[in-house]
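[Structure tokenization] protein backbone as discrete codes

[Encoding] learned vocabulary of local backbone shapes

[Begin record] amino acids and matching fold tokens:

___
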Amino acid sequence: MPERPRQGLRPAFRRWRARRPFWGGLLLALGGGEILLTEKASLKVVMHIGMQGLAGYLLPTLMVILGLLILFNPSQRLFYSITGVLLALGTWLTSNLGGFFIGLLLGVTGSCLAFGWLPDQEPRVSRRRRRRAARAAEQRLGEGAGDLA
């Protein structure tokens, strides 16, 4: 088997990231982490501890776990993202209004991104390249029409 030239970490990470809903999983995990950090805030800042205290720690911990599962097991992203959005909305009641809205919004946004991600999608073509291709096609048509006349 011929040896391929060793590539850097950055291209390898880009290939890994392109095969999964990276930003969705990352935002969901960050939202859960932010909510966990607000649980440790001083009593002057904390609005309410939540129902029985345990759910205030359980829901954001599960959000972090689901975010990591989306990153490392993208084939089950639909289940993880639906569960993640429900947990993020549940933190509204259990964890300082969802980590003062920031963790709640991060979790819901990340879950929606993961839910909407489509595997094996062709890479997007920039607007500049589409315009360039359209101009080239117009020029070819114009040259073809001049030959017919």
Remarks:
- The first helix runs from residue 9 to 18.
- The mean pLDDT is 83.
- The radius of gyration is 23 Å.
- Residues 59 and 87 are 6 Å apart (CA to CA).
